[in-house]
Amino acid sequence: xxxxxxxxxxxxxxxxxxxxxxxxxxxxxxxxxxxxxxxxxxxxxxxxxxxxxxxxxxxxxxxxxxxxxxxxxxxxxxxxxxxxxxxxxxxxxxxxxxxxxxxxxxxxxxxxxxxxxxxxxxxxxxxxxxxxxxxxxxxxxxxxxxxxxxxxxxxxxxxxxxxxxxxxxxxxxxxxxxxxxxxxxxxxxxxxxxxxxxxxxxxxxxxxxxxxxxxxxxxxxxxxxxxxxxxxxxxxxxxxxxxxxxxxxxxxxxxxxxxxxxxxxxxxxxxxxxxxxxxxxxxxxxxxxxxxxxxxxxxxxxxxxxxxxxxxxxxxxxxxxxxxxxxxxxxxxxxxxxxxxxxxxxxxxxxxxxxxxxxxxxxxxxxxxxxxxxxxxxxxxx
Length: 382
Fold this sequence. Notes:
Layout: H1 2-10, H2 12-35, H3 38-146, H4 148-166, E1 172-177, E2 183-188, E3 197-201, H5 205-212, H6 217-242, E4 252-255, H7 259-268, H8 270-278, E5 281-284, H9 286-363, H10 368-381
């Protein structure tokens, strides 16, 4: 485009002269036509021919120059097109590379996300299986609790687990028959006082469920009477069957294998709890029974310590007697050592005398006079 502008600018003068010449020819034609002269027409014809020849030359030159400039413009346009195409190719390559890297990163992130998703789905499947298993267990538990005998066995098993996990084997007995022919769920063998304590498992589930399912005040009042009567009957039965004068302790334990029932009883039925206090039937839940059994274990440990203390006292008395005999024997041995020391001193005296005699004998001269003088001195040493 810039070359075309230069071309038009450089030949604008020739184009302008051609246009002026054409205007001049036209004006001359008009004058000749007005005057109507023959000679002027010939002159005008010559001038017109020369002008046409000159104009044709100019036009030919202009056409050739225009063709060359068009070729230059076409070459410049092609060059610019190639440059633009090259730039576009470079930009496109960069964009393609960037898009490829982005796709790779997105693919890696997508793969990582899918892996995490698969792991999470696997965990969800495991959790779902556990939930399904738990639902089956809950249904099984509901079926167990719907049967009174199975419910009683459930409470006895829970009682068994608590007792065996806390107390030593010689401190309890299950299903023990008392002197009145009644079979106790569990008996705690404690020293007097307090003595043997009976634990009986009770599970008033029907009355509690009726209390929970009551929809209006009338049903709630009936359910409360039903629940109160059920618990009071259990308290009375335990007090009559498992508190025996001279055989068991003055109190017994009623085990409720449900914290909810225990909480409901102590929260809204304090009169029933007071009746249990007066009847000396202590109501316990799994948590409170665990605390009670730990206390029982401490009592048993204290009783064993007292028994061991008696044994220790007896052994200490025997040890004191042994120490007295040892003292007398040491004293006798001391007397023997003292006598032996005196004997050793006497032996030392005799030994020293013998040594002096031997020394004198060695110093005696062989002369007779000296012998007579030495004999009295030896006699004196005796």
